[in-house]
Amino acid sequence: MHLLNMPEIKELSIPEKILFVEDLWESIAADASVVQMPDSHKNELLRRLAVFDNHPGDLISFDELKAKINNRK
Questions:
Q1: Confidence class of residue 62 from pLDDT cuts 50, 70 and 90?
Q2: Strand spans (E) along 1-73
Q3: Whole-angstrom Cα distance, residue 8 to residue 1?
Q4: How many angstroms separate the Cα of 72 from the Cα of each of 43, 44, 59, 67, 69?
Q5: Which of 30, 27, 8 shows the shortest CA–CA distance to 17?
Q6: CA-CA distance, 40 to 64, in Å (whole number)?
């Protein structure tokens, strides 16, 4: 079944579709024990934590990141 082919979902506005997706993710997160994280994701998280542990001062805020991205345009 492809959800986007369901008439009820097709007729939703964009904001309603976003709310639908949020609800869907929340229902998945509520039973996250069923979904196993792939080793590649675990390894990437461990790599990023190691970078943070070794260079905690290199972090920037989300606002700083957005500004850097917008300044490239």
A1: very high
A2: none
A3: 14
A4: 31, 27, 19, 9, 5
A5: 8
A6: 28
Q: What is the pLDDT of residues 33-51, one digit of tens each?
A: 888 889 999 999 999 999 9
Q: What are phi and psi of 42, to 5 degrees?
A: -60, -45
Q: Is the pTM of this model over 0.90?
A: no
pLDDT at 36: 85
Q: Which residues of 45-63 are buried (b: 16+ CB within 10 A; e: fewer)?
A: eeeeeeeeeeeeeeeeeee
